[in-house]
Amino acid sequence: MYDRYQQQALSTRLGIPLIYGIDAVHGHNNVKGATIFPHNIGMGATRNTELMERVGRATAEEVIATGLNWTFSPCIAVARDERWGRTYESFGEDPTLVAEMGAAVIRGYQSARLDDYRIIATAKHYLGDGGTAYGTGVNGGIDQGDMQVDEETLRSIHLTPYIAAVNVWVGSVMASYSSWNGQKMHGNRYLLTEVLKGELGFQGFVDSDWQAIDQLPGDYRSDVKTAINAGIDMVMVPYEYITFIETLRDLVESGQVPMERIDDAVRRILTAKFELGLFEHPYASRDFFDRVGSAEHRELARQAVRESLVLLKNAGNLLPLPKNLSRIVVTGRNANDIGNQCGGWTITWQGRSGRITTGTTILEAIQNAVSPGTTVIYSRDGSGAEGADVGIAVIGETPYAEFEGDSDNLRLAPADVNAIENLRAAGVPVVVIIVSGRPLIIEPELAKWDAVVAAWLPGTEGQGVADVLFGDYAPTGKLPCSWPRSVDPIPINVDDAEYDPLFPYGFGLHYSD
After folding, report:
1. Rounded to the nearest 5 degrees, what angle is found at the Cα of 291, between the Cα atoms of 290 and 297?
2. Is residue 209 annotated as a catalytic residue, yes or no?
3. pLDDT tens figures, 335-360
4. Which residue among the candidates 146, 209, 337, 416 is catalytic per the annotation?
5. How many beta carbons lie within 10 A of that of residue 321, not counting itself?
6. For FRET with 176, which of 49, 213, 331, 378 sits at 20 to 30 Å CA-CA?
């Protein structure tokens, strides 16, 4: 597909090759069979910038292997409200953590080379998408909402990761759907041009989000004029591109968009294409297919999974489990579902449950880890656990993305609670593994559970979960966000004047604790 597009571009009068972007946000996640790494919230729990850089490099190699040259990643939003459906796309609630992890993965993306092929990264979504107010977004949610803060807060929290991204020469920045005090970011010349390009010295190009200029006030002609004059260099127009081209041309010819603004945008985009080597190597290479989903990359993802796990409770030192137990009962909707493990932005925009790609579920990982004499039984609802040595419940969320995941109800699903209650009724110790894109409300049930592990959205390599459960590796993850007691105090963040979380930012037990 990419080569067909490129062939058409090169047949035009100037023969300028296309740059082609893809949402490779936790691995090359649109490609079936690719390695799917933990989403950013899990990577934030690792605190491991060197690992993050290696993950970025591996992802870039898989992107290059399919011919593409640009990723719409990383999201360096500072997520300040767990009700946001994009919380898992953030590295956490602390701007310093987000800045360090974001810069690391950008270095990984942009330093990857396969022969003369490479990709560029995108820092998104500029600016403040993680700080919008609940009730101001799509359908009364938070996504694409309004950030209602002063400029000092905007700079100290939300601009910090972009300073780090510009300092490592990120190739592009994507503007946010969201607003700042009522003004849409896609039309904010002060932040896009004066701050980003001027004050910070950003040398790459600014691209819009999907159909985002259409949300600017006024008619379509006004939308195009406002966005381009504000500093948008490349516009993501999925459908009415002919109308866009005709409209922009007329705006330039009538003097409403200065030619200097067009020259600046073109110069920035052409520079990126030259730096990528697209004029010398416009077509995909077929030489790197073996990088996609390779054993090396899957082993790296497995390491990322085990380092992302956060041990929240371990009563009586139940964990790590011996591998030679007689009988283990595994329950829960997320125990044997690779789609649920991966979350949104996997194969499809929203992701979906089921065997959507190649990988190891947590159930399969447990079966692989135990001794040959151990019986592992899967009971989706937790029934039949009598006589088992331990019950492992893998619960949490099912896939979602963007505003579809906005929610002011972060309580556990009744099916999850019932499955755990069935284990307890059988009188077995209970280990709970939470597969989710954000903290869930667990305080009402927590006292009934013996051990609890936050596994976030680990991706395709569930064996990393078993590595920690059975003691091959100790848990090292630390919470990248505060874990609330209930929905009522959300948003809750470590720098709040009144701060009483269930588990504080940075919390994480070790087996020695």
Report:
1. 130
2. yes
3. 999 999 999 999 999 999 999 999 99
4. 209
5. 22
6. 49
